[in-house]
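can u do me a favor
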């Protein structure tokens, strides 16, 4: 049994989607970041950086924070969605790190400046909007010759997809990125993704272009 501490954000949805894809037993615990639940002392014992998601594996008592680390751990534990060795493993990790270091942080800045604080910082809006378009271009080029980011469907896709699901927040027209649109729509139709998207609670339907 996995205890998952999460909220309705792209980073949180990465792990709930993976758990659903793995069909691994888990219990979801809502950490409402709007109410500052992430600063509670009991949560900080699990996630010292006061960020969701975090897990505790009841099989061995291991607590983990950081979504990328959690996804690698769970995939390795189950032996699915991350090859055991060789180039195939590192291709998945390569694109997982692309999401962790690029798509996630940069699109998060787009949300901050373009959706939640429009008009306050024109320079930042322009900077991060351009970076969002560039990242979508990188993704579109990769998916032009690949059904998924790193060979077979993997944790790299599950990590990236929830960020793309907020394309409307990012003012991105997916029609301009047809390979991304194809990939996004296909993954959105997976039953495990549809279920994992609504953890720890439903907040609206998955956007479909």
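np, heres the sequence
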């Amino acid at each position: 049994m996995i205890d998952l501490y999460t909220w309705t954000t792209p980073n949180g949805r990465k792990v709930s989607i993976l758990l659903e894809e793995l069909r691994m037993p888990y219990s979801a615990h809502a950490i409402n970041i709007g109410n500052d639940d992430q600063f509670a002392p009991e949560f900080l014992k699990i996630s010292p950086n006061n960020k969701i998601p975090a897990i505790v594996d009841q099989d061995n008592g291991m607590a983990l924070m950081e979504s990328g680390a959690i996804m690698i751990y769970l995939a390795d534990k189950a032996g699915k969605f991350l090859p055991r060795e060789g180039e195939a493993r590192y291709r998945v990790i390569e694109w997982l790190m692309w999401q962790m270091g690029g798509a996630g942080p940069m699109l998060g800045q787009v949300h901050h400046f373009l959706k939640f604080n429009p008009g306050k910082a024109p320079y930042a809006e322009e900077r991060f909007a351009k970076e969002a378009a560039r990242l979508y271009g990188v993704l579109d080029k990769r998916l032009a010759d690949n059904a998924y980011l790193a060979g077979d469907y993997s944790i790299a896709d599950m990590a990236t997809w929830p960020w793309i699901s907020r394309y409307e927040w990012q003012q991105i027209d997916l029609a301009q990125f047809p390979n991304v649109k194809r990939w996004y729509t296909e993954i959105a139709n997976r039953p495990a993704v549809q279920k994992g998207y609504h953890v720890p609670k439903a907040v609206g339907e998955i956007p479909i272009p």
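The chain has a mean pLDDT of 97. hope that helps!!
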